[in-house]
Design the sequence.
């Protein structure tokens, strides 16, 4: 049977309209922009995506919407030497991306999968190695830098930087270190009359259990200046 032309045309028009109708959900629109703009070339969510920048599966746990918005406006204004390009995003696109990023609280791993530091293989490698994977993939690295070397900016804190972690073995016992990671910390403003620091140490107890926190604590306690400067293990 021959399909009438008008029917073919009508279906094409309808199909196009369906594609172009933007979703009413900002998180879903943000997801589409994330894919369309090529963010996944550098960033993974779950296991899907590149490794040039931090894994974003937990980004909504560690970064506030206000900071995400500022970062996406101009990454170089926050960190001069960053390799993340400026996308000059429209305000509505940026706001949808922030909604999408803020919604990333680990579900990309936890829905039917397994977190990369909890695979049988990672578990077989033992606490320090597991902790290193966690440090990189859960995104400690996105604030404390590779190997915990520090150097990432924060506003209105003494020294202008998020602390390095290579010397925690000198100041903390393992239980103290675990408590710090579990409960997080809000930095003291260098100047109380200025806006509060935008980057805080998240309360990791919200998303990590004791066993996971113990592993990352073992990793931190194994760091020292020499090992950390040799470490190039990536995100
Ligand atoms: C060329 C690689 C590259 C591309 C493309 C890229 N980024 Fe990034 N991004 C990075 C790097 C590298 C960092 C880490 C900051 C640093 O080291 O200076 C980063 C940091 C971030 C952070 C903060 C990271 C965190 O884990 O706390 C967010 C959020 C982010 N990018 C979102 C995006 C979005 C959204 C896009 C697409 C519009 C994008 N990035 C495209 C490389 C990239
Ligand atoms: C969003 C950024 C951010 C992320 C991600 C982050 N931290 Fe922190 N962390 C901070 C800030 C800021 C401080 C300083 C808090 C203060 O001033 O009291 C800090 C402090 C610490 C300290 C105390 C350091 C000291 O010198 O006393 C430890 C330990 C630590 N973080 C471990 C971790 C671990 C482990 C992870 C990953 C599970 C992690 N952090 C992820 C921002 C972050």
Sequence:
């Amino acid at each position: 049977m021959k399909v009438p032309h008008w029917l073919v045309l009508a279906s094409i028009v309808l199909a196009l309209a369906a594609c172009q109708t933007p979703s009413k959900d900002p998180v879903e629109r943000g997801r589409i922009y994330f894919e369309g703009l090529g963010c996944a070339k550098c960033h993974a969510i779950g296991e899907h995506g590149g490794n040039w920048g931090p894994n974003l599966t937990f980004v909504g746990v560690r970064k506030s919407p206000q900071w995400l918005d500022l970062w996406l406006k101009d990454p170089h204004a926050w960190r001069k030497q960053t390799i993340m390009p400026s996308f000059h995003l429209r305000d509505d696109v940026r706001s949808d991306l922030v909604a999408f990023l803020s919604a990333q609280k680990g579900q990309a791993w936890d829905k039917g999968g397994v977190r990369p530091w909890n695979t049988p293989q990672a578990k077989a490698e033992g606490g320090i190695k597991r902790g290193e994977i966690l440090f990189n993939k859960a995104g400690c690295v996105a604030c404390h830098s590779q190997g915990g070397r520090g150097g990432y900016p924060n506003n209105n804190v003494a020294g202008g930087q998020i602390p390095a972690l290579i010397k925690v073995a000198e100041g903390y016992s393992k239980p103290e270190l675990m408590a710090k990671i579990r409960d997080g910390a809000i930095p003291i403003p260098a100047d109380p009359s200025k806006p509060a620091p935008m980057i805080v140490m998240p309360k990791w107890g919200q998303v990590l259990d004791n066993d996971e926190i113990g592993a990352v604590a073992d990793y931190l306690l194994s760091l020292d200046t020499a090992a950390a400067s040799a470490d190039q293990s990536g995100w």
User: Anything to note?
Assistant: The chain has two domains: 24-113, 114-235. The domain at 114-235 is CATH 1.10.760 (Cytochrome Bc1 Complex; Chain D, domain 2). The beta strands are 44-45, 48-49. Residues 5-20 form the longest helix (16 residues).
